[in-house]
Amino acid sequence: MTLARNTLYRDDLLAGQRILITGGGSGLGKSIGQRYVELGADLVICGRRAEVLAQTAQEFQDLLGVRIETHVCDVRDAQAVHAMMDAIWAQGPLDVLLNNAAGNFLARTDQLSTRAFDAVVDIVLKGSAYCTMEAGRRWIAAGHKGTVMSILTQSALTGMPYTVPSAMAKAGALAMIRSLAVEWGPYGIRTVGVVPGPFPTEGAWKRLMPQERIGEAPIEHGVALRRVGEHHELADLCVYLISDSAAFITGEAVVIDGGRWLQGAAGASAYHMQQWPDSTWDSLHPKKDKA
Ligand code: COA
Fold first, then answer.
1. Helix residue ranges per DSSP H, 92-190
2. Candidate from 49, 100, 105, 112 with most ligand 1 atoms within 8 A of CB, to mutate
3. Measured between alpha carbons, how far is 8 from 192 in angstroms, rounded to an integer?
4. Which atom of ligand 1 lies nearest, measured to the CA of 104?
């Protein structure tokens, strides 16, 4: 099954675009990668586990008849990132880097070990920086234009209890996007971000949305549009932001969350008020009898 829906995009929109997605073997990165391949991109994915990468590559070949390039690489390892970028560039320069690899779990911050803190920050903040610097310096040296896109989270904008290392790291990744938009803009390098709300994936849902957290209230109650996102919706935004149609957008992070963070900002009572019957509203402002 393809991710294409009622799409605005031409089937060959991304033809000739060489794109690396870190952590592209699973979850949202895999869905975005599939959409890129459907639109003609030359896809490269990396991740820590060879078997996951191989399985995704096989699936894409079976489904779309396209071969993709895979690299086993832990983005926490700066030397491994350097070697991977050398290997990728040996086949041809990237046009787009998508910083998607992440690590996150729920934990009380006062109970976190420093190794646990490092595990998340090293992947999300340092890993994104290592990949971005490796791509950027090659683009600048060759006079090649490029786009860096990073997957962020709401926590980068608002902070988030119990996922503090991830919130800190994603906020840093947002600062990187905004900073490099100016520093690298003159070279024709764009840096953008995406802030996805609830897009269910097996891994993230198990880790971040256990039943104990959600309790009795369905997650949809916390989303203005009263539903979770579908992967093709996120993937199509990620297509737009790397396409020529978005050529004047840089340093910006686009929220795609069905109004979730604003529903949260409105406070818990907003949801209850939306359930009030007319009689409750009428009791607050009784209508005067017309004589
Ligand atoms: N709560 C508290 N501490 C945790 C934890 C949790 N849920 N999970 C891991 N840690 C701690 C470990 O105890 C360890 O610290 P310690 O040595 O002081 O005990 C430290 O984090 C490193 O754990 P380890 O499993 O050795 O690290 P790792 O590098 O193999 O994996 C992740 C860490 C985050 C990458 C791992 O959880 C992972 O693979 N996650 C899947 C990817 C992911 O999280 N994606 C994002 C989904 S939203």
1. 114-121, 128-142, 155-158, 164-184
2. 105
3. 21
4. 44
Question: Ligand 1: does its nearest atom lie under 6 Å from the Cβ of 119?
Answer: yes
Does the predicted model carry a pTM greater than 0.90?
A: yes
Between the CA atoms of 91, 97, 98 and 99, what dihedral angle is there, to the nearest 10 degrees?
110
State the Cα–Cα distance between residues 34 and 193, nearest whole angstrom: 19
- For residue 218, the Cα-to-chain-centroid distance in whole angstroms is 23
Using CA positions, which residue lies closest to atom 9 of ligand 1?
Answer: 116
Q: What is the pLDDT of residues 8-53, one digit of tens each?
A: 899 999 999 999 999 999 999 999 999 999 999 999 999 999 999 9
For 177-203, what is the mean pLDDT? 97
* pLDDT tens per residue across span 218-275: 899 999 999 999 999 999 999 999 999 999 999 999 999 999 999 999 998 999 999 9
**Chain mean pLDDT for the chain:** 95
CA distance 48 to 41: 23
Residue nearest to atom 6 of ligand 1 (CA): 105
Burial class (CB in 10 A: 0-12, 13-18, 19+), 161: exposed
DSSP SS3 for 191 = strand
Q: How far apart are CA 153 and CA 159, in angstroms?
A: 9
- The radius of gyration of the chain from alpha carbons, rounded to an integer in Å, stands at 21
Whether the CB of 113 sits within 6 Å of ligand 1: yes
Q: Which domains does the chain have, with CATH numbers?
A: 18-203+228-259 (3.40.50.720)
> How far is residue 188 from each of residues 60, 144, 244, 258, measured CA to CA in Å?
31, 8, 12, 32
Least Cα distance to 57 among 89, 83, 25, 85 occurs for: 25
